[in-house]
């Protein structure tokens, strides 16, 4: 009986030791990931600041999506600069553009997309107590429109903005590939072709396949800058700043950041 009791005690102690060892390993891994995230965030912010400084020196508005390679402290990072008129402006987009967005990107049938697009227009045009149109203050406000649930918003969130006044049209040179697909009526091959021509720096990009009633040109002073910082596990850490390139005497900088976000882009794992 004594021997059996000793064996049970030894087994219990080994289980406790194993659990403690696993807990220590997990905590060490979490600390390592937190340290990597903090370092990647600082590197991404530094790369964005360098690109912003160059944009301020050039004093020339960027009219198309472009990617800048930034070497910093022995790391090579890509910073994507996107003028916000490459997104669908919730406060000025016409009903046909919103309906196309809901159909192509949102996955809704046309019979549901058209009335929902009109509901979005009705929401932003509704008058406040002061008599001004209510308008969308942030893209998240889209979920206040009846019929827009979180799943639909998640499919649209990266394609819309409430931070500019674009006149209702989209600049295809600045548009992400998913927005190009909306402008192309769902033609993914055409959107990819235009995106490839644009990324190659081609001067005259053929836009004839896009719906001419939905596109426009021009420049804005608001941009999304996104730095991609590679991390040791093969993934990337994305640092994003939404900025207004205008002098501000309050802080002395020639730009103002009005939104920031950070996220992890996991490494692609081969399928088993």
Automatic annotation (TrEMBL):
<dbReference type="InterPro" id="IPR038072">
    <property type="entry name" value="GspK_central_sf"/>
</dbReference>
<protein>
    <submittedName>
        <fullName>General secretion pathway protein GspK</fullName>
    </submittedName>
</protein>
């Amino acid at each position: 009986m004594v021997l059996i009791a000793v064996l049970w005690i030894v087994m219990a102690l080994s289980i406790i030791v194993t659990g403690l060892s696993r807990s220590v390993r997990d905590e060490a891994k979490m600390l390592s990931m937190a340290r990597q995230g903090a370092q990647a965030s600082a590197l991404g912010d530094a790369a964005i600041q360098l690109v912003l400084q160059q944009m301020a020196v050039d004093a020339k508005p960027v009219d198309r999506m472009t990617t800048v390679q930034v070497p910093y402290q022995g790391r090579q990072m890509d910073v994507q600069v996107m003028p916000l008129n490459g997104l669908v402006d919730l406060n000025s987009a016409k009903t046909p553009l919103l309906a196309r967005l809901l159909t192509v990107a949102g996955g809704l049938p046309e019979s549901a997309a058209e009335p929902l697009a009109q509901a979005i227009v009705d929401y932003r045009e509704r008058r406040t107590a002061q008599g001004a149109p209510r308008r969308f203050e942030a893209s998240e406000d889209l979920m206040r429109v009846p019929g827009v649930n979180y799943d639909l918003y998640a499919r649209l969130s990266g394609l819309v903005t409430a931070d500019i006044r674009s006149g209702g049209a989209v600049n295809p040179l600045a548009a992400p590939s998913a927005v190009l697909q909306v402008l192309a009526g769902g033609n993914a091959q055409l959107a990819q072709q235009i995106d490839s021509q644009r990324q190659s720096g081609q001067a005259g990009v053929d836009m004839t396949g896009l719906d001419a009633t939905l596109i426009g040109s021009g420049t804005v002073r608001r941009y999304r800058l996104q730095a991609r910082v590679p991390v040791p596990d093969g993934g990337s850490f994305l640092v994003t700043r939404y900025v207004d390139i205008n002098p501000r005497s309050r802080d002395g900088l020639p730009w103002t950041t009005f939104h920031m976000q950070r996220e992890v882009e996991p490494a692609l794992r081969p399928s088993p």
